[in-house]
Design a protein that fits this description.
The complex is a heterodimer of chains A (334) and B (178). With 334 residues, chain A is of the alpha/beta class. Chain A contains 12 helices and 9 strands. In chain A, helix 6 links the parallel strand 5 and strand 6. Chain B is α/β, with parallel strands linked by helices and 178 residues long. In chain B, 26% of the residues lie in helices and 27% in strands. Chain B is built from 4 helices and 8 strands, in the order E-H-E-H-E-H-E-H-E-E-E-E. In chain B, the strands form 2 sheets. In chain B, strands 3-2-4-5-6 form a 5-stranded parallel beta sheet. The two termini of chain B are 13 Å apart. Classes of the chains: A alpha/beta (334), B alpha/beta (178). At the A-B interface, helix 1 of A face helix 3 and helix 4 of B.
Amino acid sequence: MAVNFVRPIIPKLAKDPWAIQFDSQGHLKHLLTIEGLGPTWITRILDTAEGFMSVTDREIKKVPLLRGRTVVNLFFESSTRTRTTFELAAKRLSADVLNINLSTSATTKGESLLDTLRNIEAMQADMFVVRHDQSGAAHFIARHVAPHVSVLNAGDGWHAHPTQALLDAFTIRRIKGDFAPLRIAIVGDVRHSRVARSQIHAFNSLNVGELRVIGPRTLIPNDIEPLGVRVFHDMRTGLKDVDVIIMLRLQRERMESGLLPTEQEFYRLYGLTEEKLGWAKPDAIVMHPGPANRGVEIESRVADGPQSVILEQVSNGIGVRMAVMALCMSASTE
Amino acid sequence: MMQSMPDTPTLNPINDLMTQIYRDLQHAIDQGQLTNPLMVGIHSGGVWIAEALHQRLNLSDPLGRLNITFYRDDFDTIGLHPQVAPSQLPVDIDGRDIILVDDVLYTGRTIRAALNELFDYGRPARIWLTVLYERDGRELPIAAQTVGQRLQLNPQQQIHVDGPTPLTARIVTREDTH
């Protein structure tokens, strides 16, 4: 259970494990984690996404940028929203898309993963979009793919979900503008959340004014404060003067593992109700990476309310994923 | 390394060219060759020129702007630049006469990309290409209907248009071109 929050389970790598994301020219090749991107690349991805958003407003929502390329969605863990938005993003760039859903077996993962990889490579794939329940799976794949293949991490274990963090940053920037004056609170099960990890790295890179995490002691990692995060265990103080509230999904298995008493207890203390929302700034926005557990981490009236931007996050996810795909598959020479 | 060469052709003053283009377009409208046209500029030089022409022609619809980055055929070699100014077509282009404006017509590839993009928005009745400068070196069967100035340049030479105000142009010579 003891997982280092700052350095999760990335198998032994070179001293700069994030360098693998860039090619020899310093151009983005794989997107595995937010770490190592820095404000320049993050901003470049967000700016590019802004351009793609205009495509999604048109009658023909397609540009020919990746015509003839093949994107393979390699999902070892089930997901509807993430897979569909990646699929739609690839299709709007005119790429061919292959969806492969593989359930993970507990044993001999390394071997079977490589075998799977070689087989799909033989189908002349150009990009793998990988979701896996093991932290570091996307890194592992990026190190072993053929040189022309790009790898996007669509969520690996507790480690990272970089496109989610980017689409959240994109959504915030579209609504709030500048990051510097903002107070952002991430609420709930931060410990087991790859979304929270990626968000913390992204928001710190973008120089968000103040970053807070709010949750019970059992669900907030001990080593989180050095990342530049203020820890709160109480919603009333944690939400005070906050501009952006990000609710995390509470997974039901946390109850079984004894980290939480009951769902009702969690909802009473940390569930975002209209009353608790009133403790934040009046124009605070409410975000959730989905799928939301209504009545566990968020009240329905808040999820569907005027301050919720949950559906905007989904739409923005397509533009952001188009940007990441196009940037990773474009040539490095300028 | 770019530098001006002493033996390069001379560019006519932009103001004169703009006046001439304006007259030619007004003539085409008066003659019924263009009906209630919609003007669309190609980022970024084409938009600058289109803005000036749009104002003088007093067209009823707002100016359209096309950013053809997503339609380029050299994505593999030059990469993708962030889209600070996405395409904006303010009205439906179906059945419309479109004056498509760019600064320089050279290989024709930019216009090819612009035509493809326009057809993803709808089916225009007519597309009328207007450029400030037309030079030799076409790689595609594309021609402009209204041209400010025609030039013969060697492959090392390029016309650089800067703007929007003041709108200026100069010929630069690329020494290390392939």
